[in-house]
Amino acid sequence: MLEDYINEKISEARELMQNDTDKALKIYDELLEIEPDNINALNGKGSALMKVNKYDEANEYFDKSLSICENSSAFLNKGIIFKHLKENEQAIFYFDKACEINPNLENIITLLKNEITTSTDTINLNEFNDEASELIKKGIELKNESKLWDSLEAFLKAIEADSTCESEVNRLIDEIKNTFEKEFIYNDEEFDMDNKIDRIKMQAIRSLVKENDPSKTLTLMNIVLEVDKNDLNTLNHKGGVLFIFNEYQKAIDCFDKCLSIDKCYYCALFNKGIVLRIMNKLPEALSCFDELLKMPQYSNKVKPYHLEILTKLNQNPIP
Length: 319
What we know:
Elements lengths: L1 H15 L4 H14 L4 H13 L3 H14 L3 H13 L3 H14 L4 H12 L12 H15 L3 H14 L4 H18 L12 H14 L4 H14 L4 H13 L3 H14 L4 H13 L3 H12 L5 H17 L4
Helix pairs in contact: 1-2, 2-3, 3-4, 3-5, 4-5, 5-6, 6-7, 8-9, 9-10, 11-12, 12-13, 13-14, 13-15, 14-15, 15-16, 16-17
InterPro entries: TPR-like_helical_dom_sf, TPR_rpt, Ycf3/AcsC/BcsC/TPR_MFPF
Protein name: Tetratricopeptide repeat-containing protein
Keywords: Repeat, TPR repeat
């Protein structure tokens, strides 16, 4: 059936979005030739265009989607586009529209709206010494320019310059960490809802994505790992949750366990690279991304991280 074919191709395109946006775009183009008013294909192409920073074109596809039927996905993505363009009132308008249609988006939309309201106006810089204040301002400017690693470095230096700013600056650091956590890669997995362990795994993922409750997620994942300590998908997810809790070494231990089971498990290798970069372990992080670059299907995802670390190492060589 045509509907089954289209749904299958959309799932394929969504999976390709992680590593090969060009191929995903080609699939969406093919689908839109067959069914020009397919909302999922329109939103999918818009999302793929966002991945390659073609925001104006992406916006047109979300507008086309909304002209057919109001839907939360198009509203949410339009909000993200206007947030990126720093048109904050428009962004908040679209975020609110998305939440009206789908209240389950409330947690993620709250995070996105909080990112919009973060500015020097929300922090009383007069409370800190001059060096820390300048570093905080610089960090926020870099964050708004999407130079997240440089922003993170500025915030950490601000804390070193004046420890009294730590509480305020950690809030800004957490927002950057949330951005990186969204970059983590997880394998899509088919769940057998007649299987008790699969039901627990699905509940764990739901508690993280929809309920924004990482503590509950961790508890459920530990239950799964008591039954099967080598469950790759669960170990990888657990590493991501431990990252949220700032348990960096424990997160890496989870990713290493994945890689001891399957040395080519690219999800864990990529996630480990991000955590090592957060820990400022640049050569170790680079080694992870070097390995991933040997797999052409992941190069688009990996190259920006690889280049950032190489640039950093060239500026500040390790003695």
